[in-house]
Amino acid sequence: MSRTSSFPWYYYIRSARSRIFFSITSIILTYLITEFYSHNAIPKIITLIVGVILSSFFVSYFRIIPLRKILDRMEKIQTKLPQDKKINIIYQRNEWDLLDEMLLLTEHYIGKQNEIVQTQTEQSNIILNSIPDAMVTIDNSRKIKRFNTVFKENFLVDDNKKKEIELSSVLNNESLISLFRKCLQKNKKIRTSGFFIETRNEFYDIAIAPTHNQQNEVNGALAIFHNVTEAQLSERMRVDFVANVSHEIRTPLTSIKGYAQLLQAHGDGIPKEFHPILDKIDINAERLKDLFDNLLKLSLIESRYALTLEDTDLSFMISQIESNLKAKHLKKKIKIKCDLENEFIKCDVKLMEQVLNNLIDNAIKYGPKDIKIKIKSKKQDNANLIIVTDNGPGISEKELNRIFERFYRVQGTSKKNIEGSGLGLSIVKHIINKHKGEISVNSTLDEGTEFIIKLPI
Ligand code: ADP
Question: Which atom of ligand 1 is nearest to the CA of 367?
């Protein structure tokens, strides 16, 4: 059924108004002329005709002003039209025909535009649905706007047919929702890895990025959920395996070491040529125990160890480490100088003790007989810095990038007969990472090495 167009009331009233004005003007004019030229008919008629013509021109001028504006605009649009359409319009003589042609063209372009938008939407849907990760977009009030099939299959389990779905009702995880809130409020991309979503019982790497309108204001966010459950589980199995093996091996090693020490203690009854063998058994059992101790520590830090942050007295901790290490390295003359601007820092006491112990132990192990170590702490840019400097042999630039790797030992170290497993610094790095901090190192060969720990406050 064709729809009848609405009656143009506005135009009708304007038209009637001008006609009324025109008629009144003509009546007044006729009256005045009758007054002036009451005896002479010819000038009376001429003046009347001139008056009517003038008032018609006057009224018509104001009537066509809106049309002029429209024609101006059309002229501008015309310059942007394709060549074939331009000619059609130029040859329109009548303004109303021109308007009609323009409207037809507009209709044609709107249709085309709609087709383009539809094709683009279909294409973006195909792209979205071919992404193997779950994807969702939300608006500023965290209502879901669009999602792909993976998101639908994994998170919209109830086949939610509601028009407006709250993200919080789907994810049901306050800390995850707070990441979305932070992204929207701070207009900042947010990434988190290995996030456990209870409702799915799965781990995800999640990337959330703000979306913007044409005025560049945040109007929502887009999130991608990459399922890493399998990787996380196999990593856990690896860590558990290392932890279990290390734990199981420590017990027989301790007894080997114990028996070796027992035999050493009763050395009188054992032939002299066996004494160095007993020493070797003792030393190597100790080395193996150290290695497995370090492996165990590393896997514990990597997996289950939850930080217990508390205000820690650095100077007390350093003095304890110093006395332990002095007892361990009896042949060395050790001097430790502290310059602690902020004596108390928030950290996990046990783990930070491990960090400082490993760094100071290395400085002593690899340093000269007369070793000087400086430990400095200060606040900088919302972070606590702890700097450990020594006057040891230094590390070449080539090796500096690798010293935090597991089992990496600087070339030539083992030839110097300095014991170690290459795990000390990777334990340090893991602990600092666990504190969401950073560790860096500067070193000059034959001058010394400086380790800088940066812990967020
Ligand atoms: P290791 O058990 O061999 O000491 P680490 O991970 O603690 O293992 O250290 C890795 C390597 O970095 C060491 O082999 C050593 O050569 C070098 N290194 C570490 N700290 C120092 C230091 N303070 N001075 C010189 N070299 C160092």
Answer: 24
Task: Give 1's pLDDT tier (boundaries 50, 70, 90).
Answer: very low
Query: What is the number of the ligand 1 atom nearest to the C-alpha of 424?
Result: 7
Do 228 and 207 contact (CB within 8 A), yes or no? no
- Is 157 a residue whose pLDDT tops 80? no
pLDDT above 60: residue 414: no
Mean pLDDT, residues 26-52: 76
Running DSSP on this structure, what letter comes out for residue 214?
T
Residue 36 has pLDDT above 80, yes or no: no
pLDDT at position 160, please?
A: 57
Residue with the nearest Cα to atom 19 of ligand 1? Answer: 362
For ligand 1, atom 12: residue with the closest CA = 403
How many residues are there in the chain?
A: 457
Q: Own/partner pairs for 404-412, CB < 8 Å, 24+ apart? A: 404/428, 404/429, 404/439, 406/298
> Smallest Cα–Cα separation from 59: which of 9, 17, 111?
17
pLDDT band at 2, cuts 50/70/90? Answer: very low
- Quote the CA–CA distance of 187 and 168 in Å, as a whole number: 19
> Can you say whether the dihedral through the CA atoms of 148, 149, 152, 153 is positive or negative?
negative
pTM over 0.70: no
Q: Read off the pLDDT of each residue in 353-370 and give the average, rounded to a whole number.
A: 95
Q: Which amino acid residue places its CA nearest to atom 20 of ligand 1?
A: 362
Distance of CA 333 from the midpoint of ligand 1 (Å): 19
- Asked whether the beta carbons of 138 and 183 are under 8 A apart, the reply is no
173 — phi, psi (to 5°)?
-145, 110
Whose CA is closest to atom 18 on ligand 1?
362
State how far the alpha carbon of 318 is from the alpha carbons of 312, 357, 377, 442, in Å.
11, 8, 12, 22
Ligand 1 pocket by Cβ (under 6 Å): 358, 362-363, 366, 390, 392-393, 395, 403, 408-410, 413, 420-426, 449
Give φ, ψ of 197 to 5 degrees: -105, 110
Ligand 1 midpoint to CA 372 (Å) = 16
Q: Rounded mean pLDDT of 248-267? A: 88
Distance CA 52, CA 22 (A): 8
